[in-house]
Design goal:
The chain is mainly α. The chain has one domain. 65% of the residues lie in helices and 0% in strands.
Length: 168
């Protein structure tokens, strides 16, 4: 009996490794949004911006990015089908950010040994694009939408630390 390989098996990843790669983009959305406390409306806008970049990953020339985006959107909802995943507000934002960065290090190390430089680079750059979209989606601070900063120091620090870990 011949069984068909799953997408992640075809790409050379175990179930646990695939779980890391598929879960990380959503973790980046959550951490990038949580790093700065915002209103519910702003958090939803940040989440939507991150999910738009995740959705765009389905159009990537990278088979890895494409497969991860397709798998993740099948789990959390497809913005193009009107299925907007809820904005997640973690109970401990600092722990969420720290966990996301640990997972990013693990993914970078995994890809270094398993994927081509092009595939690894495309995935790492995509994660940074997701973080960029989230942290630039709304202004933080200010009053009634007036003033505030487009990207706060905390958001910039998270994005820069993520990019450094991913060497992007």
């Amino acid at each position: 009996m011949v069984t068909e390989q799953t997408t992640h098996e075809k790409l050379g990843f175990t179930d646990d490794e695939w779980g890391l790669l598929v879960g990380l983009p959503e973790a980046v959305v959550t951490a990038a949004s949580a790093v700065e406390s915002d209103s519910g409306r702003r958090s939803r806008a940040e989440s939507a911006a991150g999910h738009e970049v995740i959705s765009a990953g389905r159009e990537s020339a990278s088979p890895l990015v494409n497969a991860v985006a397709v798998e993740l959107l099948s789990r959390v909802g497809d913005p193009e089908a009107g299925e907007m995943p809820p904005a997640i507000t973690p109970a401990d934002p600092a722990a969420t950010v720290a966990d996301t960065l640990v997972r990013a290090r693990a993914a970078a190390a995994l890809l270094e040994g398993r994927a081509s430089e092009g595939e690894s680079g495309a995935y790492r750059h995509w994660l940074t694009e997701i973080a960029d979209a989230v942290v630039t989606a709304t202004r933080s601070g200010g009053l009634l939408g007036i003033g505030g900063e487009q990207v706060t120091e905390a958001e910039r620090h998270f994005r820069d630390e993520l990019a450094a870990i991913l060497a992007d």
